[in-house]
Amino acid sequence: MDTLFTVVSSKGQIVIPAGLREELGIRAGTRVAIQRDEDRIVLQPITEEFIRSFRGCLKGTDSLVEARERQHRLEK
Does some domain include residue 35? Predict the structure, then answer.
């Protein structure tokens, strides 16, 4: 990982270098999540690719229909 440097403005703003913005798909209006990790700040661009990466991550082993049918059988 290359180390890049920027300066914080008097308003608390930073500039993300153009090459890094291009690589990560950050454009004007892109939302960025900010997390604190002990003494570090982590920036995560919320791009379409990032959102698509979550597709199916919460899928359980059963569908809702199967879970409801199993619950219904147990109630009998």
Answer: yes
